[in-house]
Specification:
Blueprint: H1 6-27, H2 32-43, H3 54-75, H4 78-83, H5 85-109, H6 114-125, H7 129-138, H8 145-171, H9 190-228, H10 232-254, H11 258-270, H12 275-300, H13 305-308, H14 310-334, H15 339-348, H16 354-365, H17 371-405, H18 413-447, H19 456-465, E1 467-471, E2 476-478, E3 486-492, E4 494-499, E5 502-507, E6 511-512, H20 514-519, E7 526-529, E8 533-539, H21 540-549, H22 551-570
Antiparallel strand pairs: 1-8, 2-7, 3-6, 3-8, 4-5, 4-7
Length: about 575
């Protein structure tokens, strides 16, 4: 081949090795993420054989970060977070402070600067949302009390990390690093840093305000237009355009990170009823690029650190597995919750992952972190993810023994009961909203049985196409000889169709206007409202587009039209 295939080679080898090592990890009862990191190590310059293009892998990793953060935003629920706020907010912030302090202490002991220690400690303090969600799914604990607390806890950690990602480039020089790629090159100094910090916060505030004010109106409208077309690939493309477009636009216009832009794109969409569909349609691509993200991180890891600095690796691992867990355990107990809950949350936090890698990458880019510190973070992540399932198994074995011994449930029972009630209330409200939407679809089929042949997704799309219209008694809706412009489906009330020699009464559940749309001919009868009427209306364009995609509906409408023509002739 005469042309450059570095991109194809990097993607192909990344996926092939990620699959091989991911499959092996699952067979060994380890998270597949471990296999993806090992695949990256195999593709990196520290190991023999094929070496992937690091620059291309880095850009693919950026796409992975954007889609990961978009997914985190999609799963963000302000209601869930507020339900567990009494434990998640103080717990997460307290644990981050303690773990970061441990990291700063290690850095000081090893002769590193305070700035290096700060980034190092932050990287060790943030647990992986991806690893936690996968672990909870495997254990069927996504909706358990401890599971929902852990998710809320990690949402707070994610928000703190996003804030850190915004501030670190601005504070880099003050902490001993250099101007970030997005910086303006201003000289270091207290006044300059303060000014840069204010400018950065104003930019972030402007972006957040714009995203939260304009986003909830614009993004759902855009997705609705895509959904109205009935094209699944166009809807998926719209979701990706929102995620990548907002992430890139926020970086270019406001100077914030891709991660922050993507996160708020997901948050904006999370409150829309399109969120579940958006998450489902974008999940394959999100998973694919997430794999490439972890592969690219593994490429940066130098496995020789396990040989030359085993004590440092063990120390970092101890902070992640035991230091963080002990801090979380004490905080949860201090907040008045039972020992089993504290143990479950502690096990959930005993690992680090994607945000630690993002922080480490930013630390390298700003000169705050050394390659040695990054390798220790990567080693700690790899080993903690491998060992995390064993901590869960240990907790599972320990909790029944504590309960059998007595006293394990007495402490914190009342506080947990209050929290459980809040979670149940939140779940009830969410269920009611989802049930109301399902009821709209069910009512559509009950009122108009002709739609019963459509699948669930088609019915959802049809609801988006309908517009509402009302008519007062005596109001003429259709005139004979007019060009057909819409089909009318009667929700309430009744109309009269005037044909030669007789008038036909149609009431709720009936529809009219479809015959001319199907044939392309002009209207053949006058239609007048008898009562106050409410209609669901399909415009000519939407009707023809939807019917063309669903032949079974076209056949049903043709059958009804033929029956009506027969009745008219008999009359």
């Amino acid at each position: 081949m005469n042309h450059d295939v570095s991109l194809i080679a990097t993607i192909a080898m990344g996926f092939v090795l990620a699959f091989c090592f991911g499959y092996l990890a699952i067979r060994l009862r380890l998270p597949p993420l471990v296999g993806y990191l090992v695949a990256g190590v195999a593709l990196g310059s520290s190991t023999p054989g094929f070496v992937a293009d690091a620059a291309i892998a880095g850009q693919l990793a950026e796409v992975g970060v954007i889609l990961l953060m978009f997914g985190v935003g999609l799963h963000f629920s302000a209601a869930d977070l507020m339900a567990v706020r009494s434990i998640a907010i103080p717990g997460a912030i307290g644990q981050i402070v303690i773990a970061t302090t441990m990291g700063i202490g290690l850095a000081a002991a090893w002769g590193w600067s305070f700035g290096t220690g700060l980034v190092f400690g932050l990287s060790l303090s943030i647990a992986s949302t991806v690893v936690l969600l996968r672990a909870l799914e495997d254990r069927n604990e996504m909706t358990s009390t401890a599971g929902r607390i852990s998710i809320g806890w990690l949402i707070v950690e994610d928000l703190v990390t996003v804030f850190a990602l915004v501030l670190l480039p601005t504070l880099a020089e003050l902490l001993g690093g250099h101007v970030s790629p997005h910086g303006d090159g201003a000289p270091a100094g207290g006044l300059a840093v303060a000014f840069a910090l204010v400018v950065t916060l104003c930019k972030v505030g402007g972006f957040v305000a714009l995203a939260m004010l304009l986003g909830p109106r614009l993004v759902p409208w855009l997705l609705k237009q895509a959904a109205r077309t009935g094209s699944r690939e166009l809807f998926t493309l719209a979701v990706l355009a929102v995620a990548l477009g907002i992430a890139y636009g926020s970086a270019e216009i406001f100077g914030v990170s891709f991660a922050l832009g993507a996160f708020f794109a997901g948050v904006v969409l999370s409150e829309s009823h399109f969120s579940h569909r958006a998450a489902a349609d974008s999940l394959p691509l999100q998973n694919a690029f997430a794999v490439l993200f972890f592969v690219s991180v593994g490429m940066l890891f130098d496995p020789s650190i396990l040989i030359y600095q085993p004590l440092a690796v063990v120390t970092v691992l101890a902070v992640i597995l035991f230091g963080k867990s002990l801090a979380a355990f004490v905080i949860v107990l201090g907040l008045g919750y039972p020992i089993p809950t504290a143990l479950a949350i502690s096990a959930s936090l005993a690992q680090i992952g994607e945000f630690s890698f993002i922080l480490a990458g930013l630390g390298i880019a700003t000169g705050l972190l050394t390659a040695e510190a990054r390798d220790l973070i990567l080693a700690g992540s790899l080993l903690s993810i491998i060992l995390n399932p064993f901590l869960f198994a240990t907790v599972d074995a320990l909790v029944p023994k504590l309960r059998a011994a007595g006293g394990a449930n007495a402490y914190g029972r009342e506080r947990l009961a209050v929290l459980l009630q809040r979670l149940q209330d939140t779940s009830k409200r969410q269920s009611e909203r989802e049930a109301e939407h399902r009821l709209q679809v069910e009512r559509l089929v009950e009122r108009f049985p002709i739609f019963a042949a459509l699948d669930a997704q088609a019915r959802e799309n049809l609801l988006l196409l309908f517009s509402s219209r009302t008519a007062m008694p005596g109001e003429r809706l259709i005139r004979k000889g007019d060009r057909p412009d819409a089909a009318y489906f009667i929700s309430t009330g009744a109309v009269e169709v005037a044909i030669p020699k007789r008038n036909i009464r149609l009431s709720h559940g009936d529809f009219f206007g479809e015959m001319a749309l199907l044939s392309g001919a002009r209207r053949t009868a006058d239609v007048t409202a008898i009562d106050y009427c409410e209609f669901l209306v399909l415009t000519r364009r939407d009707f023809q587009s939807f019917v063309s995609r669903h032949p079974e509906l076209r056949e049903g409408l043709k059958k009804v039209a033929a029956e009506r023509e027969e009745m008219n002739r008999d009359a």
